[in-house]
Amino acid sequence: MHILIAPNAFKNSATATAATEAIQQGLQSSKLSCTTECFPIADGGDGTAELIVNKCNGVWVDAVVSDPLGRPITSAFGLIDDGKTAVIEMANASGLRLLKADELVPMHTSSYGTGQLMKIALDRGVNKIILAMGGSATVDGGCGILNALGINFLDAEGNTLTANPEGLQQMAAIDTSGLDSRIANCEIVVVCDVDNKLLGDNGAAAVFGPQKGATAEQVKLLDGFLANFSAVTLEHTGKNIAEIKYGGAAGGATAGVHAYLNARLVNGIEYFLQLTGFDKALQNADVVITGEGSIDTQTLQGKGPFGVAAMAKQYGLPVIGIAGMVPLNGDPDLRKYFDVLLAIGNGPADMPNAIKNTHANLVRMGTEIGTMLAIPRK
């Protein structure tokens, strides 16, 4: 039996690679005689760029850029396709993980550093940029990225504004005359892990602002800033970024790069699996194991395990889904894609202990799955 192990990251507890290796360790210690292939996956969230670069045999380029608060840091981006495609992870320059808890101030954080990475990639001669935007610390509509690439934001008197939400409260016009001319000949693809729109109760500020440190009052200010940015953008470009799918991802950065850089917004897991040749791995598999922190009905909205399971079903393969949390009652829609759903926990646990024990639980679950598959059939 050949088992394809393809989980997403278990948020805050195990990277996709670590989860894959733990499951494999469990299978190898079980009673099942099997071969395995490790194929960690990502859907646009933290770690996506690393997996793409590793799977596509790319290289990493170090670069000094600004962090979300404008401080210099050493970041990096990947090059694949013989150096013609850059793979940039927003979290590497503008991510939450770069800030301490008391530095989460989304009215002042900026995506400028991500734009700097894009500019440096253009200096290396790339003609395509893949942007993974999960894990950002910003709710700036991508204005920092655009500013780094030469776009300026003006008030009613024509004064240049600081490119963060606090500084852009009085935005009245956008000057694109300085936009890096190389953008016109560069394909930009944004892999998105959420499909929220830009504004409103399910928008960038309301849903993701609190995760990035925004108070209730700041959520209103951020949503108001994004609404004004949308209105000015509509007047300037004719594009209604308030209505586009994925426009609320990464604090609205997806909307900004779509409008001004002509970036294409795509479902993260579908693009990842196509780019990395997941179909070839499926051709050799007898069983597929996937998972992430939680599998529920929201998983079917395009999350990583759903993408894996949907493609596996095209090949008629059984799919085992494992997660920290699964629905108490069977869901018929989930059952169309996951033949088995298993929670990895070994008993009641609070979140800190559940996270602490993720590796051990994944190893144990791998062992149990292997032993279950080894049971003789009469």
TrEMBL record:
InterPro entries: Glyc_kinase_flavodox-like_fold (IPR018193), Glycerate_kinase (IPR004381), Glycerate_kinase_RE-like (IPR018197), Glycerate_kinase_sf (IPR036129)
Family matches, as SUPFAM superfamilies: Glycerate kinase I
Keywords: Kinase, Transferase
Record-level Gene Ontology MF annotations: kinase activity
Family to which the UniProt record says this protein belongs: Belongs to the glycerate kinase type-1 family.
Transferase among keywords: yes
The protein's name in its UniProt record: Glycerate kinase
Record keyword Chloroplast present: no
Domain of life: Bacteria
